[in-house]
Amino acid sequence: MIIDLTDTTSSEIASALLKARRNAGSPAMGMVGTIVVVVDEASHHDAMKAANEAGREHPSRVLVAILRPGRGASGLDAEVRVGEGIPGEAVLLRLHGELAKVPESVVTPLLLPDSPVIVWWPGGGPRVPAEDPLGRLGRRRVTDAAATRRASVDYTARAEGYAPGDTDFAWTRLTPWRALMAAALDQYPTKVTGAEVTAARGNPSADLMSAWLQSRLKVPVEQRNSRGPGVTAVRLFTPSGPIALTRPDGAVATFSVPGQPDRPVALKRRTTSELLSEELRRLDPDDVYAKTLACMVERDAMPADAKKVAETARKSTAAKVTAAGKKVVAKKPAAAKKAAAKKVAGGKKAAKR
Question: How many helical (H) and strand (E) elements, i.e. helices and strands, does the chain have?
Fold first, then answer.
């Protein structure tokens, strides 16, 4: 059921939601939270679609706020959707004029009582999400550094303004990568002397991956550019050879460990709805993300030469592996000569007899 409201109020929208639920035959609310989406007119359709798809796993009330500040008269237009293939409820809010400067006054009365609120900015997000008027309402604040219009993300501001509940899709995209690299060191415990992250130029996930490896392993991490898509390789350099996870096509990765055959791993690039679903599963503070942001600031302050120390570790590992191979090759001729000498001596003894 779709109800269009023009020049309306939050009270009229709440009444329309109740009417729509009753007409749909479900007067009781079976939703677990409220998702507030702050988006522009051009991308609101894709954002609402992703939120509704995530709602199939977490039925929620989706409030899509389109802010239109300007010199025109203040006003509020709304579109209420219940049913129509939507697992929860969806409300499209268009705030005009001065009203767009105080969106919390419209959104707050529409929040589900006694349930968590997740605020999501698909277009990048503010510099400090916790200080945003709508961000203050959220228990979880989700931004997307990869969608920002700025040339680069100000991680210093993100780290200094971090509040429990902040997260970013650039960090969420790394969950399977981090899980696989952690599992590799659990199965093959060894000393890591350096690391390398390869990704498309300007990829914020690569920055966070490098900072995470540096903060956890206490080793230098170098970043390299590739054609993408996204992160294409992560390598940990060890005395016996590199532990590598490479994904050149964005779908299937190859997991390589010294002394073991290469193994294919399903590691496809996830959709926006899948990323949002992951964030809805976890509403507690992400302390690892906070520490990674702090390390990201330290990396930004490092000189360029210090970030390339991992190249030395890579060359050192390659040299050790090559030297070990030469030793094995050198031992084989010596062993062959010794066997041949024994054979000749045995032949001479037989001839004397």
Answer: 11, 14
Q: Which of 341, 13, 168 is nearest to 5 (CA)?
A: 13
Whether 54 is covered by a domain: the verdict is yes
Q: Report the distance separating Cα 269 and Cα 291, nearest Å.
A: 25
Low-confidence ranges of the chain (pLDDT < 50): 28, 310, 313, 317-332, 336-337, 344, 348, 350-353
Structural domain boundaries, residue 54: 2-168
Q: How many domains does the chain have?
A: 2
**Which stretches of the chain are DSSP H helices?**
10-23, 44-54, 104-107, 155-160, 169-172, 175-187, 204-217, 272-281, 287-301, 304-307, 310-352
pTM: 0.81
- Of 155, 114, 109, 141, whose CA–CA distance to 29 is shortest? 114
157 and 259 in a single domain? The answer is no
- CA dist 27 and 6 (Å) reads 24
Estimate to the nearest angstrom the gap between the alpha carbon of 353 and the chain centroid.
80
Residue 115's SS3 state is coil
* DSSP conformation class of 263: E
Q: Are residues 14 and 163 in the same domain?
A: yes
Q: Do 102 and 246 lie in a common domain? A: no
Residue 215, domain member (yes or no): yes
Cα 322-328-331 angle, rounded to 5 deg: 140
Q: Is the peptide bond preceding residue 229 cis, with omega within 30 degrees of 0? A: yes
pLDDT tens digits along 274-315? 999 999 988 889 999 999 999 988 877 765 555 555 455 455
